[in-house]
Amino acid sequence: MQSDGARGGPRSPPHHLEASMRIHLPAHRYLLITALLLTTTALPAQASAPPTTPTSTPDCTPGVHAAPNATCISYGPESNLGAGTVRTYTAYRSGKTQAVGVMLDRTALQKLPTSRGKHCFDKDNDSHISPTTACTGGTERPLTFAERPRKTGLKWALLNYSPYGHGPQHVYDTPHFDVHFYLQPKAQRDAIRPGPCGVLINCIDYARATAPVPPAYMPADYEDQGRAQVAMGNHLIDPTAPEWHHQGFTHTFIYGAYDGRLTFFEPMVSLAWLNTLARDEKQGGCTPVKQPTRWQRAGMHPEQYCIRYHSKRDAFSISLEQFTRNAM
Fold this sequence. Notes:
Blueprint: H1 15-24, H2 27-47, E1 71-75, E2 79-81, E3 84-93, E4 96-105, E5 119-120, E6 135-136, E7 139-143, E8 156-162, E9 176-182, H3 186-190, E10 194-197, H4 203-209, E11 223-224, E12 234-237, E13 251-258, E14 261-270, H5 271-279, E15 285-288, E16 299-310, E17 315-326
Antiparallel strand pairs: 1-3, 2-3, 3-4, 4-17, 5-6, 7-8, 8-9, 9-14, 11-12, 12-13, 13-14, 15-16, 16-17
Protein name: DUF5602 domain-containing protein
């Protein structure tokens, strides 16, 4: 639908009525009507960008689509982490998806678990599972949405906390969170088995995970480095990112793949960076997400990811935003 602005704004009255208005209306009333018309025309532009962050936006009524020009947020169920909780949220405006994210209480960063992960494999075949070398994934929290974010293809989310980071060394080996937003059904992700290949992944599943994504669907600058992992899939890397050039890891963006298809969007953020935001809220913001030439599925896809601290709620949000409709 076109907005009033696209239709040329309020229609002018016929010439004979316009002349009558000029002749019979006192000057102060004519000026008042003109001002009201200009204000009414300008309001939609001012109201076109209501907040979509979880600070001051009202909760959506369950099962009810947002009213025209209204913004609301739908929250998923909470899951415990550290001394706090985490949960998903989806922001809508006029019924359209504006943001999909995960919110962490600031207290979730306290008393964090130290496990390297529950996905383990005896890679050395010595009948011993070493928690430091034979397990991966860190602490994970599968998260559901109150309802699937509309027209995005997103089905569920997975939050992982890695207390020691992970490879490659000197790049991502610091404490951090991996926030996966999955296009792939959870049952298919759960079926990715442990084994001796890649990052403790079954070798048959490794071959499926590293099946090439067709060039047209490969995001710009990303490459397959064979970083396929049990219970996740492959991780496509952008080697132009700052952390690959000795600039330190604060946050980055990874694409997931399996069977030659993109399967998840993954913002990664260091624990140190979240603590920095808690001290200086203004450093939070958004970063562009590099896009493929074409998408394998039609629908809405994110063009940026955002990491923020919200002092009013004493919570962090890690989100996908600026969803744009794309054809196949």
